Protein 1
Amino acid sequence: MRILVAEDERALADLVAEGLRGRAMAVDVAYDGAGALERLSVNEYDVLVLDRDLPRVHGDEICRELARRGERVRILMLTASGGLHDRVAGLNLGADDYLAKPFAFDELVARINALGRRTGPPLPPVLEHGGITLDTARRQSFRDGRHLPLSPKEYAVLEVLMRARGTIVSTEELLERAWDEHTDPFTTVVKVTMSKLRSKLGEPPVIVTVPGSGYRL
């Protein structure tokens, strides 16, 4: 999944982003509402983790703007107030879920995963293809029963390929879904990660390179 964290407490925003990257998610960060809207206009996100009390553009206005645009991104609203009135107001503005600060990181991850499953066609929590099994709830992967010790980025690439169900995934799409906005579009990072992933998957090969198009399982 690709996530945007919009939070003006920089230490918290950076901590959350780093933790989510460790869970094989691609994460961008905005420290104010204007920055969040700018990133939302140029990137496609699965989930927006949105602090309600953002400077420059308030979180409520961001919800209204996204609703006006008809954006597909799911919104998890964060706030220092956990009162019923605030929760109802946030949900009525278009937020899909609501989490009061302070929160447990594992709960944040669980809520993001739940929202991420709602951004596309329903898929089972366990994906299987060609002897490969991906347990998306536990972030574990296996081939023919053998555990695969994948890095978060290798796992993210494999998940994108598994969710494509045998269709071709371009290098550009992999950069969009598994990396963040700071990645150089001309980098060889996809090729390097793909090489490491193939090595860990072992024989026989299951990832096919389609010249000029991308990769598929």
Protein 2
Amino acid sequence: MSKDVVLVKIKGILPVNNGEAVFLGNKQKVFVIQIERTMGEVIKMFIQNKPKQRPLTHDLMIQVFRGFGVEVDRVVITELRGTTYYARMILQQRNELARKVVELDARPSDCIALATAQKKPIYIASELFEQVEDMSHILDDIKKSSEGTEET
């Protein structure tokens, strides 16, 4: 994996016809990854620190990680093939003797959910960031139109 990455943050999660649109970006650019509706809801729960009646799959994964002294270090959205984004989750385990780093292939939605739950950074490969279409104007338009409807 290339070391050339750009830090991004979740700028918004909005419902679309067949799932959720996750807007990720920074001051320079915003891009969109489409994910399953349930994954969007999970990510929103982690963002809002909403309590859950029962642990979700991502909560279970975090508990397993903690049991083994592992944590998410960061996630990186690495490439786009067709309309499918790919990502890597970088895990680390530290103890008094050493630090072990493991890099896993994972769905971007799972990476975003776990990074959000553990307050870890989300990156995109620089080369990919240059290629993705800037959707800042669409997010701004949506925010402006929703502000107008909230007041009524």
Protein 3
Amino acid sequence: MHKLENEINGIVSNLLNDYSQGKDIDTVSSFDHPDKAVIIEIIEKLQKIIYPGCFKNNSYRYYTVRNNVTMLIEDILYNLIKQISIVLKYSSEWKNVGNDITANEAERISLEFLKKIPEIRAYIETDVQAAFDGDPAAYNKDEIIFSYPGLYAILVNRIAHELYLLGVPLIPRIMTEYAHSETGIDIHPGATIGKYFFIDHGTGIVIGETTVIGDNVKIYQGVTLGALSTRGGQKLKNKKRHPTILDNVTIYSGASILGGETVVGKDVVVGGNAFITKSIPAGAKVSIKNQELRYNYDSSHPVESAELEQDESWYYII
């Protein structure tokens, strides 16, 4: 036992020495970093406010909407001010500013954000409707609200996007990456998304920071709305790197649409697995031509190939 204790002490000493080497990952002060668990709780509380009839607060024995909303808003405001006060220090503008001034700015931002909740709810109302209208497997809207990962990813993105627009560092990305880990859907908080947005299935979707999406857009699993290249690294910051998708566009599974100058026009249908790096005119249908299957039935038969005709149904891969 004495030998084991010495081994543990030696390991601890080596780690403490390693912590003193000035690595970026060495900072251990819990007071200088946001609390991810608190930020996730803020999302959960905002979900209760956005869907007051679906996600009730059980803290009150006698439930009333006013009591529920008041308690949630007070709790969110307190924690959001605290977390924003911390992350503002990541911005060069606020790095050397006194804590009182930072706290006042965090309070202002938090109140501005909370005033945006009715607008967020208005967008989410359209998203629920788009999911119901667009999915014949949806039996009712409650099923969509409680179980569809696409709607949850959109909800978190709409919350995070408002904080992003208010200039809050770090917290919006923590929110959307949490949704990413829960749903497999990666939407950067900087992405601008219009009304009636529907994500079906959703796993593997990537939507980049400077993407702009119009109204009534539907996308399926595995779609990438990305950049053509990120070789420039930080030099590309604040440049339009991701595509613009105009109104009434449908993008089927596995399609990749890349580049900041790429614009997909209104009413376009993009077929499954298409790879697009140039703009598409309004009303076009884009599909992959001359698909080929190779197959054999057993070892005694040679491999054969068959070309698939591009019929009307081929690019609707769901």
